[in-house]
């Protein structure tokens, strides 16, 4: 699927540890301006996705029709009412990695850091755009999609990345996995989300953050819901 990533200023600000783009230092903003055309020339985005049926969801494990099992209680709870999942890998290609390394070798650390942040924001944007398109597509069919989940996120072990790669034909997007389960090119994101068949009753997809007590989680996507006292 063709998706041109966009670097949204507020998303980039968050990646750089700031609350708003205007609060980033003037010199950093100048560097971003200078690096934007460089980034546009380097980026070679591609995204591969595949639907896979869910056989069953039991005891914190998602059993897929094609064989592999994903072990994660939170992912399982999110997918328990889904019939299928969509697995995906998105990448910006390896030229961005090469330029970040070149800048580091030349000791241009600030530029390398900013380009790295721009690439991270762009990769996240690519996945968000893909997820939004799928949400619209399935909404038209009376279905809804869950949140995205990636190996290494929440309680899903990074080692499960191997199962996801076995399932996907990753040759299609030319992303490789090393023994530590890290992807090359570095600016790649893999993950899954579920498809649920009951849109007419409104959005009923589950968010594991509603039930989670962790206070300091940087990945939190919703506040904890208080239980009603009876
Ligand atoms: S707050 Fe949300 S993302 Fe973080 S560990 Fe809890 S469920 Fe996972």
Characterization of this structure:
It is built from 6 helices and 8 strands. With 230 residues, the chain is an alpha+beta fold. A hairpin with a 2-residue loop joins strand 1 and strand 2. The longest helix is centred in the middle third of the chain and has 31 residues. It is globular and about 50 Å long. The termini are far apart. 31% of the residues are buried. Iron/sulfur cluster binds next to loops.
* Number of DSSP E strands: 8
Q: How would you state the average pLDDT, rounded?
A: 91
Structural class: alpha+beta
Q: Encode the helix/strand succession as letters.
A: HHEEEHEHHEHEEE
CATH level-3 fold name:
NADH Oxidase
Shape: globular
The end-to-end span amounts to 50 Å
Report the biggest beta sheet as strand number plus sense, adding barrel if it closes: 6 strands, antiparallel
Strand order across the largest sheet:
3-2-1-4-8-5
The share of residues in helices is 25-40%
What is the name of the CATH architecture? Answer: 3-Layer(aba) Sandwich
List the defining traits of the structure above.
230 residues; binds iron/sulfur cluster; six-stranded antiparallel sheet; NADH Oxidase; globular; alpha+beta; two-stranded antiparallel sheet; 8 strands; 6 helices
